[in-house]
Amino acid sequence: MSAEATNPVSEAGAIGPDAPGRRRSRPRIDLRRLGRAALLGATAGPAVRDRLPDAIGHVGEAHRAHHPDADLAVLRRAYVLAESSHRGQFRKSGEPYITHPLAVTLILAELGAETTTLTAALLHDTVEDTEVTLDQVRREFGAEVAYLVDGVTKLEKVDYGAAAEPETFRKMLVATGNDVRVMSIKLADRLHNMRTLGVMRPEKQARIAKVTRDVLIPLAERLGVQALKTELEDLVFAILHPEEYETTRALIADNSGAGDALVAIADQVAAVLRDADIGAEVLVRPRHFVSVHRVRLKRGELRGSDFGRLLVLVAEDADCYAVLGELHTCFTPVISEFKDFIAAPKFNLYQSLHTAVAAPDGAVAEVLIRTHRMHKVAEAGVVALGNPYAAASAENAEAAEDAERPGSAGGSEDGERVDPTRPGWLSRLLDWQEATPDPDTFWTSLHADLAQDQEVTVFRTDGGTLGLPAGATCVDAAYAQHGEAAHGCLGARVNGRLAPLSTVLHDGDTVQLLLAQDATSGPSPQWLAHARTPAARIAITGWLQAHPEAAKAPAAAPRPPASVTADRRSGTRLRADLPDGPAGAVRPAGCCTPVPPDEITGFVVRGGSVTVHRTGCASADTMLRLGRDPVTVHWGDTAECRVTLVAESFGRPRLLADLTEAIAAEGVAVVSATVEPPSEQRVRHTYTLQLPDAAGLPALMRAMRDVPGVYDVSRAKHPASPEL
Predict the structure, then answer these.
(1) With the C-alpha atoms ordered 266, 272, 274, 279, is the resulting torsion angle positive or negative?
(2) Is pLDDT above 50 for 569?
C-alpha cells in the first residue's frame, strides 16, 4: 500500500535504461465482493483445501510478494474461524463484518507484516465480538497470536464505564511494550475504520477523528509507519477541517498535470546518475493532502514541483552520498533544505538524505535519497522489521519453548528478552503510566507525551545516554536518570558548565545531575514549570501532594538581604610608605579584602587614610586610570586578617546553618553575612570573615565547598566605587 494511497496523482515508475515504464499501485480491495464471497461460503468444500479461499486471495498474494516462502495454511485456518465466528454480523455500512478483519489483514500484508501478525489481524475481533475465547485462540494458533489478539481487544464499558477508552489504550500500550506488533494491528484497524467512517453520525465521526489525531497518528509517527500515518492524517483532515480539505482537494484536481514538471526533473536526474554510473531508481512521489495543505500555508502560491517530491532509491548507504554529490554538482542545491537522517536517524527508525535542487529552468524539486531497505522501513516502520523476537528465539530455542507469552523469554542473563524495536520513548511511556492509576490523569498525560513529536539524545557523565522529548530540561533528565531520587536534585552541569534546572537540553549535550545527600530534600513547586515529560510532572506533583507544607512555601519570594554583623575590627597590620610622613588609618579595601600574602597596592583617600587593594582589583585599576598615584604598602608582622568570601550554592533547607557551622569549625569569626534572594534555585552567600591566621584561608574555602549544595567558593570580586 502506497503512503500516498489517497492521492489523485499516481506515482511515476522507475526511470532509467531498464525502466519497465510506470508502476501501477495495487488496486484497493473490493470489500463488497469479499462480503459476497464470504456469504456464499467460499471456504466450504474440498476444492479449496489446497489453496486459500477466494475471499483472502488478495491477502495471500500481497503476503507472498514480501515473503515468498510463507506458509499460508495458518491464514486459511484463521480465516475459516473468523468467517464462521462473524457470520451473521454486519457493519453499519451493511457489509458483512468479515470484510473488516480482511481489510485490516490486507493493509498489514501490503506493508510486509509476517504471518503471525496477519493471523492475529484476521482474528483480532473474534474474542471481543464473538463466542470465540482467548483460550481457544491460544490452543489453535499458539501463545504469540493469542497475545496479539488480547492486546487489541477492548475493555468492556460495562466494567469500566467512562474509563473504558483510556484503560483500553493503557492495556494496548503495555502489550505493545512487550510486542510492537500489537500497535501495528491497532493502527491498521483504525485506518480501515476511518476509511468507512462516513456511515457514522457527524458527532461520532468527530470524536473518533480527534482521538485518531491526538493518539493514533502520533503513535504511527513514532513507530515509523508512514504509510498508515499519512492516510490517517488525510482522513482526519477531511472530517475535522472539511473546508480546508475541499480547498486542497480542488487545488490538487486543478493541477492534475503538475506531476509533469517533476517528471521532467526526474528525467534529468536519472540521466545525471546514469552518466555517473550510479544504479538508481528515480520516482515521483505525489504529496498527500495534508502535506500539500502545509506547503501551501508555508509558501503561499504553489508551483508545479511543489505537488510532489523525487525519491531516489539505491542499493548501498555509500550510494546515497554518491547521489547527493552528483545532484549538488550538476544542479544548484538549496543548502537550507539539506538534512542527513542517515548519519543521525530519527527516533522512529527513519533514515534518508533530504535535499532540494534547482533545475536549469528554475524549478525547485525536493529530493529524498535512501536505500531500498531504508525505504521499506520508512514506509512500514516497525512492521517492516517483522517478528522482533525471531532472532532471540533462534538463539535461545529452549527458552523460547518455555515462554508463556512474547517478551517473557530469555535473550539476556536476567531472563528478559531484548527487543530491538522497543524505542526509548515507549520505555519512558510505560514507566510513567505505572505511576498514574487515575484514568483521567493517564489520558491527559498520554496526550501531552504524544504531542512531543521529536526526540533528543543527551549523554550522561558515566557514559550512558538519555532519550528525551525535544524541549526537555534538566528537570526531565533528572527524573529520567534517577527516578524518585531526583527529588533531591540541586542543579546540573551541562557540557561542563553549571546550569539551572530550567535549562533546555539539545541533541548531543552532556548532562551531570547534582543530587543532595539529604534524603529529606524535595522538589520546588517551580519545577513543574520546567518539566516537559509526564514522568517528571507526575513525580513532582505526587511529592508536592504528599508534602503540602512545601507546596505552600514561597520558595523564591523577594525579600531584603539578611545580614549578621559582629563588632570586630580587622587585626591585619598594614604599613604604608608615604613621602610626607605618617598617614591616617591603613585599612584593607572592602571590594577585594586582601589577606597575606596577596600582592597589594594602596591609594590615599579622603581624610589622609590609605585603602589597600589586591593587585589587579577592578577598583584599583579604575583609580589608576583616573590618575591616582599608588602608595607602596607592606604586610605587618601579624597573621590575623579579614576576608570576604562568596559562596555559590543551590537552594535547600538549613543551608545557611550548615555553612556557618562549617566556618565556625575552622575557628573563623563571622563579621557579616548576606544572603541574596534565590534565583533559578541558586543562592549567593557573601561572608566577611575574621581569620586568626591567613594561612588557614585555603582550608576554610575547602570546608565551605564540602557543604552539600555548595558548588563554588571564591574571594569577593565585586566592584566598589573608588574613594576620592
Answers:
(1) negative
(2) no
Surface-to-core class of residue 632, CB atoms within 10 Å of its CB (0-12 exposed, 13-18 middle, 19+ buried): exposed
Q: Is the pLDDT of residue 597 over 60?
A: yes
List the grid coordinates of 144.
504469540
Number of C-alpha atoms within 13 angstroms, CB side, residue 13?
10
Q: How far lies 134's CA from each of 144, 146, 151, 172, in Å?
A: 12, 6, 11, 16
| Active-site choice (129, 165, 214, 518) | 129
Angle (deg, nearest 10), helices 31-39 and 99-111:
130
Q: Burial level of 482, CB count in 10 A (0-12/13-18/19+)?
A: middle
Mean pLDDT along residues 126-150: 91
Torsion over CA: 340, 344, 346, 348 (sign): positive
Please identify which residue in the block is written with the cell numbers 535519497: 369
User: CA-to-CA distance for 468 and 713, rounded, in angstroms?
Assistant: 33
DSSP 8-class letter at 394 = H
Which residue type does 65 have? A
User: Mean of the per-residue pLDDT values for the chain?
Assistant: 76
Is residue 340 part of the annotated active site? The answer reads: no
pTM, whole model, 2 decimals? 0.61
User: Is the predicted pLDDT of residue 28 greater than 50, yes or no?
Assistant: no
- Band the pLDDT of 447: cuts 50, 70, 90: low
User: CA 346, CA 351: separation in Å to the nearest integer?
Assistant: 7
pLDDT category of residue 36 using cuts at 50, 70 and 90: very low
Q: How far apart are CA 286 and CA 305, in angstroms?
A: 10
Q: According to the model, what pLDDT value does residue 397 have?
A: 41
Task: Tell me, yes or no, if 129 is annotated catalytic.
Answer: yes
pLDDT number for residue 570: 45
Residue 686 grid coordinates:
557573601
* 3-state secondary structure (DSSP) of residue 565: strand
Q: Which of 420, 421, 415 is nearest to 398 (CA)?
A: 415
Q: Which one of 54, 61, 128, 640 is the catalytic residue?
A: 128
Cα–Cα distance for residue pair 445/214, rounded to 1 Å: 12
